[in-house]
Amino acid sequence: MTPQITLALSKGRIFDETLPLLAAAGIEVLEDPETSRKLILPTNRPDVRVVLVRATDVPTYVQYGGADIGVAGKDSLLEHGGQGMFRPLDLQIARCRVSVAVRADFDYAQAVRQGARLKVATKYTHIARQFFSAKGVHVDLIKLYGSMELAPLIGMADAIVDLVSTGNTLRANDLVEVEQIMDISSHLVVNQAALKLKQAPLKRIIDAFARAIAQD
Ligand code: PRP
Q1: Among the CATH numbers 3.40.50.300, 3.60.15.10, 3.40.190.10, 3.30.1050.10, which is that of 96-182?
Q2: Whole-structure pTM over 0.85, yes or no?
Q3: What is the DSSP letter of 24?
Q4: Which of 22, 105, 128, 212 shows a CA-CA span of 20 to 30 A to 92?
C-alpha cells in the first residue's frame, strides 16, 4: 500500500507560491484555502493531503510527525530551532527580510551609539536577541504575536523587529527600516523518521521541487 504523505502549508504567500512546485510534482490541491474552512485539503493524489496550519506552527507539525513534510519560512525555523527535521531545500519562495524599524522621529543611530537600553517589540525574539547581542546593544524584548507596527506608535516600544516585504506596512504607519537583519525565504522541511519510513514517495516530491527550482 502507498503510504499517506501529509504536507503542512500556511495560507497566503507560502501556499500560493508552493502551488507551482506541487504542480511540478504532479500534485494539485483540490480546494482553495481562501474559500474553504477545511484544515485538511485533498489533492488529486489519494496518497497526498495538505494540512493548513499557522506559518509559525509548520516546524512544530513536522517535528512531531503531524506532517511528514512542510514549507516553512526561515524566520519560523530560526524561532523554532529546527529540531527533528531535515531541511533539504531552500525553495526561494515567499522572499522577504527581517528588519529593525522605528518611528521616523526616533534617532536609532544615536540611541545605539549612546548605549541606550532599547525596548523592542517582536514576534521574533530569538532572531532579535541574537542580532542585538552580537551588536552589543542591550534590549528589553516585548513578545507580540502580530500588529508589531503599533508598539512604537503608541510608545510601548522604541523599535520593532518584523518581516518587511514591500515596505508598505511600515510606510503606512510612519515607520522607517533602520537595519536589515537577514534575508528570508521558505524552506522545505521533512520529518526525520518519515524520511526513513516513507523514503521513496518523499524523495520523489523533494526531487521534483528541486528540479522546478533549478529551472527558474
Ligand atoms: C507581515 C509583516 C508585516 C507585513 C510586511 O505580516 O508582519 O506586517 O507582512 O509586508 P510589507 O512590507 O509588504 O507591507 P503578514 O501579512 O505576513 O501577517 P502577520 O502579521 O500575521 O505576520
Answers
A1: 3.40.190.10
A2: yes
A3: H
A4: 128
Q: Write out pLDDT tens, residues 55-70.
A: 999 999 999 999 999 9
Residue identifier of the C-alpha nearest atom 15 of ligand 1? 163
* pLDDT surpasses 90 at 16: yes
Give the DSSP H or E segment for 201: helix 199-215
Cell numbers for 29:
490541491
The residue whose C-alpha atom lies closest to atom 20 belonging to ligand 1 is 146
The residue among 51, 68, 42, 44 whose CA lies nearest residue 10 is: 51
Atom of ligand 1 nearest to the CA of 163: 2
Residue 54 neighbours by CB under 8 Å, 6+ apart: 10
Give, using CA atoms, the residue closest to atom 17 of ligand 1.
163
Per-residue pLDDT tens for 182-195? 999 999 999 999 99
